[in-house]
Amino acid sequence: MLERPPYLRDGAAIYERSFAIIRAEANLSRFSPEEAEIAVRMIHACGQVSVADSIHFAPGLVKAAREATERFAHLVDHEYWPGMAVQSDEALREAIESNSWGHHANGTARMGRRGEMLAVVDGDLKVIGTSNVRISDASVFPHTPGSFIASAVVQIGEAAAIKAIAEARGQSPLAVLDTIMQQA
């Protein structure tokens, strides 16, 4: 009988194990060691080893992008990301690695205040500029909440439901939560 490997609970160990599996299964031979590390993270994010065949790196990308930005400066207000502090291919690689998702896509409709650059929903999970549209999934996270985001997604859903019920009843969210807890 095969012995089951121990269940990993440490986030760093889980990532390292996932990356080791990807390195063993993906064809990374055409990449430099630095490119291979980025490719491993890209494969990890989408969950498909075959994506390695579609990854292409462009040397001098930062320089080419900045030159294009300068040419079309009249159309661009400013560079939001990665920002002017990133001036080399190595710095761009580091920016991508530190801002890439792990396994679960999130943060595409970030929560924030009206007027914030990337804010899509407010603290009540309402789409900014609307009155009755809420988003209650992982897209609202302003930052990745960790390796396994399922419980955080459930909490966002519960918060959205409680806020919507409270608004419909003209009550505070705490009053609605209190009613729910009394019924449980």
Structural class determined from secondary elements? mainly alpha
Largest beta-sheet characterization: none
Low-confidence stretches: none
- Please state the average pLDDT score: 82
What's the gyration radius in Å?
Answer: 22 Å
Number of helices: 6
Distance between the termini: 44 Å
Q: Shape, please? A: flat
Instruction: Count up the domains.
Output: 3
Order of helices and strands: HHHHHH
**Helical proportion?**
40-55%
Itemize the secondary structure elements and their pairings.
Layout (H helix, E strand, L loop, with lengths): L10 H15 L7 H14 L14 H11 L17 H11 L50 H20 L3 H11 L1
Helix pairs in contact: 1-2, 5-6
Structure write-up:
The chain is mainly α. The chain has three domains: 8-56, no CATH class; 58-103, no CATH class; 104-184, no CATH class. Helix content is 45%, strand content 0%. α1 crosses α2 and α5 crosses α6. The mean pLDDT is 82.
Keywords:
184 residues; mainly alpha; 3 domains; 6 helices; 45% helix; flat
Could you give a short description of this structure?
The chain has 184 residues and is mainly alpha-helical. It has helices at 11-25, 33-46, 61-71, 89-99, 150-169, 173-183.
